[in-house]
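Sanity check. The docking grid for flavin-adenine dinucleotide depends on where the pocket ends up, so I'm generating a full predicted complex first rather than guessing from homology. Inputs follow.
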Amino acid sequence: MTQPTTIRTADAAVVGAGPAGLAAALELGLAGLRVLLLDEQSAPGGQYYRSPGPEAVREVGDHRPAGARLIARVRACGVRVLSGHTVWGVEDDRRGLLAAGPDGDPVIVRADRIVVATGAYERSVPFPGWQLPGVVTPGLAQHMCAEGVRLGRSAVVAGSGPFLLPVACALLERGVRVLAVAEAGRPYTPRPAALGALRFPARLVELASYTARLARHGVRLHQDTVVAEASGRERVREVTLVRRSDPRRVVGRHGADVLCVGYGFRPQSDLAQLLGCDMGRDPATGDPVPLLGAAGRSSVPWVHVVGEAAGVAGAPTALLRGRAAAFDILAARGRTVGRRSRRAVTARLASLARFNGLTSRLYPDPARLTAELAAGLPGDTLVCRCEGVTADTLRSAACLPGGSDVPALKGSTRAGMGPCQSRECGPALDALRGRGTGAGAVPARVPLRPVPLSTVLHLRAFGEET
Amino acid sequence: MRKRTAPRVSVTIDGRPARIRPGTSVAAALLEQGRWDFRTDPVSGTARGPYCGMGVCLECEVTVDGRPAVRACIERVREGMSIDTSAGEVGP
Ligand SMILES: Cc1cc2nc3c(=O)[nH]c(=O)nc-3n(C[C@H](O)[C@H](O)[C@H](O)COP(=O)(O)OP(=O)(O)OC[C@H]3O[C@@H](n4cnc5c(N)ncnc54)[C@H](O)[C@@H]3O)c2cc1C
Ligand code: FES
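Predicted complex below; grid placement will be based on this.
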C-alpha cells in the first residue's frame, strides 16, 4: 500500500493547535501570511480547548466555549488547519517537517518559519498496579468527562498540583462518586511562601470554589498523601493511600473502579530538540526545555517555540506566548506591529510569570518528589510499562559499571525503549539510576510517534528520487 | 444541562454493532460501552486500557477499519467504523 507523498508549502507552519498554536496562527493569518496549522488530534483545540464534535457538544455541553470562538476566527482568517497530522520527524536540512496524515499517508511540510507549539503532557510516577485498566491520568478523566462519559462508579484522584481539584469536580458532575482526593504536598495549609499568591485573588478564588464544591459533596481532601498501590485483576478494584511522610501509615483503602494520578505537566519539547534547538533545563522542574530568547526565539533562526513546549505556565500564558512569537515573526518580515499591543503582551506575560512562580512554590518540587517516590517502590513494580521492566531490574542494572548512565540503563534493560519512548517512565528512570535527579530527559528519537513503516519507507524512497 | 439527543452513529466493536454519540472519540465510545480492555500487552499478556488520553502513552491503540495501531483517544468515531481490540493477542 503506497500512498503518494503530499508536499505542502507555506510562509509559516505551526505544529500544535492548542491555545499557543492557535494564537500564533491567528496573528500570522490576519497579517496575510500563508499558514499551515498541524495537529495530530482529530480537531484543533489542544489540551485546554479540546472538546468533542459539535453534535456531542450540543448534547453534553461545552465546558470552554472560548475555544470554539478562537478556532472559528483562525479558520476565518485563511489558516489551513491540518488535523489528524502527526509530525514525526524533520528533513535533513531541519526545515521540512515529516508528517503522517489521517490515514498514515506521508506529508512533507516546508515553510519559511516553523512555530513549535506541541504543548505538554502529564508527569507520571509509577506505583504498583499503575498499568491496570481504570488507572488513568487526570487529563484523560477530564477529556472523557468533557465527552460526556461516566468513567466508573467511584474514583480516587491523587498526585500533586492544582489540576486535581477541577478533575475531581468534573467526575462528580458526571455522576462518579469521588471517594478521596490525595495531594502529595501540603498546599492547602497556608504557609508564608503562599501568602504572595494573595495578590492574585482571581486564581485563588477559582481553587477555593473547587475545594468548596468538593466539601459540599463530602469529598475528603487528604494532604501529605500518596497512592501506595492499585489492585485488581482486569481492572482496578482497590486503591491504597498512605502518608507520604510515613508510608507505613495507611490513610485509606478505597474500593474504586477509577484511579486518576498525575503530578503536573512536562513540556513536550522533543520536536524543538529534533529541529536542532539548543536545550536547557526548566529552573523550576528540571525538565528539558529549549533555550529561548525574546518572544520564543530559539537558537535556530527559523524556529520559534511557544506555549507549554517552552515551559509549563498555563493556558493564559500559552495564548500570549503564541501572539508574541507571531508579532516577532511579522516584525522580522518588515511588517509593522502596533508597539502598544506588543508591550501589553510582554507586560501580561511578566505578571503571569510572577503568579506561576508563587503557585508552583505551594506544591512539592516534582523532580524531588519523583526521586522520593521512586526510591520507595517495591521491587516488582513495573516501572517501564511498555517493556515490562521492574524497579528491581533497574536497580541491579544501575549498580553495574556505567549503569548510572540513562542510555546505558535503557540499553541493558530496554526500559524506556517502548512505544511511549519513556514519556511515562522517564522521570522515574532518571531517579532510579542511582545518581539521578528525577527530572528525566526525553531524548528526541525519530519517529517521535510510531508511524506505519510504509509511510517512512515511502518517504525515504521519495527523498532519494528528488 | 442536557440538550436534544443527536442521532447516533453506527459502529461495530469487535464485530458487535453499537450506537455511539457522534463527535466523540473512539476511546469514549469504548468506555461508554464499559470496555476498558483496549488491547493485550504483548510483553505481559495482560489487558491494557487508555491511560494518558492525549496521544503520548500509546496504551489505547486499537485497529480501526483494518488500520492497526490507531490511538483511540485522539481518533473520532465515524458512521460505519469498525473498531477491533484484538491486536496484541497474537504475535505480529
Ligand atoms: C487535560 C488537560 C487539562 C488542562 N487544563 C488546564 C487548565 O484548566 N488550565 C491551565 O492553565 N492549563 C491546563 N492544562 C495545561 C495545558 O497543557 C495548557 O495550559 C494549554 O493547553 C497549553 O497550550 P499549548 O498550546 O501550549 O499546548 P496544548 O494545548 O497541549 O496543545 C499542543 C497540541 O500539539 C499537538 N501535538 C504535539 N505534538 C505533536 C506532533 N508531533 N505532531 C502533531 N501534533 C502534535 C497536540 O496534539 C496538542 O493538540 C491542561 C492540560 C491537560 C492535559
Ligand atoms: S490513552 Fe495514551 S495514547 Fe491514547
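Relevant for the grid: The domain at 24-84 of chain B is CATH 3.10.20.30 (Ubiquitin-like (UB roll)).
Also worth noting: The longest strand of chain B covers residues 9-13.
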